[in-house]
Write a structure and sequence with these properties.
Aminopeptidase, 2 domains, six-stranded antiparallel β-sheet
Length: about 475
């Protein structure tokens, strides 16, 4: 079964819609290079569209009714949106779920050290990466530092034109004969992914007394680190000990860019899975008067197994649904379980796009193609479907009809050849409630690389597909 290229069907009006959506998406990518930044951006957007924080509604003792729009934030890293429908919640919701985290380097809690005139920050990589891809590229530092008194300092260094950037060094080719003989997973080791943050030592003024100078030199044996700390203190009020309670993420510096002479693609960091998060968000905000309650879950920690308090395996989603049902006067433990079991979900995550340069890794009949629309994965997992959600045929038929009726271009795929591919999403976690779930999203080239590629057309089709799904009764 051949799929069609979505570009070939667009009217002039649709082409304008594609461009408008992609512009907003690039702005989202530029503003949200960490989960916290994404949540901040999303909250600002949805409050302008009439969403009210669930905690505020609870404090005011208000009840929820059809048409109300509420959201809840979990530890500044995850957010859930609800648009209350006219149907009984016990009959289930239409749910979109995606993740906001992306592979990166995380700064360790005791990271600063000096070696041979360079100041470094020690890092630990987060998620699945090819470590050799992260050397010699401009890097930025994003995140927060939390002081002992609770003060939160936002950090973003490396994105503005006059900002400094950071980098991981690599061995020059002239001396790399032994390095080039190593396997790709050994060329750069995890402990070698430390970023260089400085090379200039702290210098004492001549007016300082000899005693002061001697004492200062004694205390600043690592003078390059001392200079770096001096800058951090001046600009951010940060001491070395504050690294202990910091969450600093090292990501590729620079903005999302249009790619190709035809500007048909987007090249940017973090598109897995912010491309699905953004298209889900826009689809959610387009809803007018849903009959079934619409829900959009945007979570953290998917890249490391959806663990922890901000991952999909936490109870945050279930607790929020319980609160929503209570505030509509429909809560009981049994009603909650019925609501979850009767819900339907699109687990919105990316799939690998066919790359002709590496054709041997794909099954050409069962792979997603860039610009051929949103992609559905009946199952994920790896090697014998291990760890997979495997959607029922009846549910897939239901989804097919929704997409065809809405004129959405879509395709089906697997993640690579049977004994080569594999990957996980949040789908299996929601399926534990007994609800129907299928993975779907946007095809991505260079997945998990510092810069990933997507098609504007696929972004648009995904948004249209998600919007059609949310309207389904």
């Amino acid at each position: 079964m051949n799929t069609e290229c979505a570009w070939e069907k667009y009217s002039d009006k649709q082409l304008k819609e594609v461009e408008k959506l992609s512009q907003g998406y690039r702005a989202f990518l530029d503003a949200g290079k960490t989960e916290r930044e994404c949540v901040t951006y999303i909250v600002n957007e949805i409050e302008d569209k009439g969403y009210v924080e669930l905690a505020k509604v609870l404090r005011e003792g208000r009840k929820l009714k059809a048409g109300d729009k509420v959201y809840a934030v979990n530890m500044e890293k995850s957010v859930i949106l609800f648009h209350i429908g006219s149907q009984n919640l016990e009959d289930g919701m239409n749910i979109l779920g995606a993740h906001l985290d992306s592979p990166r380097l995380d700064v360790k809690q005791n990271p600063l050290y000096e070696d041979s005139g360079f100041a470094y920050l020690d890092t630990h990589y987060y998620g699945g990466i090819k470590k050799y891809q992260w050397v010699t590229i401009p890097l930025a530092i994003h995140g927060v530092v939390v002081k002992k008194d609770g003060t939160v300092i936002d950090i973003s260094i490396g994105e503005e034109e006059d900002d400094p950037v950071f980098f991981v060094s690599d061995l020059l080719i002239h001396l790399a004969a032994e390095q080039m003989e190593k396997k790709a997973n050994k060329v750069i080791e995890g402990e070698a992914l430390d970023i260089i943050i400085g090379n200039r030592p702290l210098k004492f003024e001549a007016k300082d007394s000899e005693d002061t100078k001697a004492e200062g030199e004694k205390q600043t044996k690592d003078k390059v680190c001392a200079f770096a700390l001096d800058i951090l203190k001046q600009h951010y009020g940060m001491e070395e000990e504050d690294f202990i309670s910091a969450e600093l993420e090292v990501v590729p510096a620079g903005k999302a860019r249009e790619a190709g002479l035809d500007r048909s693609m987007i090249l940017a960091y973090g598109q897995d899975d912010r491309v699905c998060s953004y298209s889900s968000l826009v689809a959610m905000l387009e809803q007018k008067k849903p009959k079934r309650t619409s829900c959009c879950i945007l979570v953290d920690k998917e890249e490391i197994g959806s663990v922890g308090a901000t991952g999909m395996q936490s109870r945050f989603f279930e607790n929020c649904v319980a609160e929503i049902m209570s505030m509509t006067g429909a809560y009981s433990d049994l009603a909650l379980r019925r609501c979850l079991a009767n819900s339907r979900m699109l687990s919105s995550d990316v799939s690998s796009a066919y790359d002709p340069a590496f054709a041997g890794s794909f099954d050409k009949k069962n792979v997603a193609y860039l610009s051929h629309g949103m992609v559905f994965n009946k199952f994920t997992g790896s090697r014998g479907k291990s760890g997979s959600n495997d959607a029922n045929a009846e549910y897939i038929a239901f989804i097919r009809k929704i997409m065809d009726d809405a004129g959405v271009t879509f395709q089906t795929a697997e993640l690579g050849k049977v004994d080569l591919g594999g990957g996980g999403t949040i789908a299996y976690i929601l399926s534990l409630y007994g609800m129907n779930v299928i993975d779907c999203g946007v095809p991505v080239m260079n997945m998990h690389a510092p810069h990933e590629a997507t098609s504007k057309a696929d972004l648009y089709e995904a948004k249209c597909g998600y919007a059609a799904f949310l309207k389904a009764e």
